[in-house]
Amino acid sequence: MPQFNDNKAIRYAELRQEIASVVAGETSRTARFASAACMLAEGFAPRFYWTGFYEVDPLKPNELVVGPYQGTLGCLRIPFSKGVCGRCAASGTTQLVPDVHAFEGHIACDSATRSEIVVPIFDADGILVAVLDVDSTEPNAFDEIDQHGLEAICRDLLSV
Ligand code: SME
Asked: What is the 19 CA–ligand 1 centroid distance (Å)?
């Protein structure tokens, strides 16, 4: 679907600018993450069924705790040893999962989820601070264009 994919890449570029402009100068991480979750979920509705952040718990450095999100009720905590989010956090690499049922250890916070992408977010020192989790009710809903688009947006999210 070249036409759709061209449009999708353009949409990511637009959204990256829109999000950067909305959060510019805002020092609260919660405000930045909440705005990005809202704009991504709206920008790619209904494909983005659950869109949100899991943050590394400063008191439990091998555990993620839920942050700002849009969607149905998410799990509150995910250890680095569990799920797609945990795999992303432990490896520090983006996880593209076309079929969550085929991913051993997937955490089904919502049984409607069929595919997902999880992107790591690092601070200026290269320390992992959070992951962005996007889930879809469609199988195979995400590709490399989503990966590049979301990784670019995540790179911006910690710079004020
Ligand atoms: N998808 C995650 C769990 C979090 S929720 O789906 C919101 C995982 O397996 O890591």
From this structure: 24
**pLDDT tens-place string over residues 19-36:** 999 999 999 999 999 999
3-state SS record for 13-81: HHHHHHHHHHHCCCCCHHHHHHHHHHHHHHHCCCCCCEEEEEEEECCEEEEEEEEEEECCCCCCEEECC
Q: Give the Å distance between the CA of 84 and the centre of ligand 1.
A: 6
Per-residue pLDDT tens digits for 105-132: 888 888 899 999 999 999 999 999 999 9
CA 115 to centroid of ligand 1, rounded, Å: 10
User: What is the spatial distance between Cα 55 and Cα 120, in angstroms, rounded to a whole number?
Assistant: 10
Q: How many domains does the chain have?
A: 1
**CATH assignment at residue 82:** 3.30.450.40
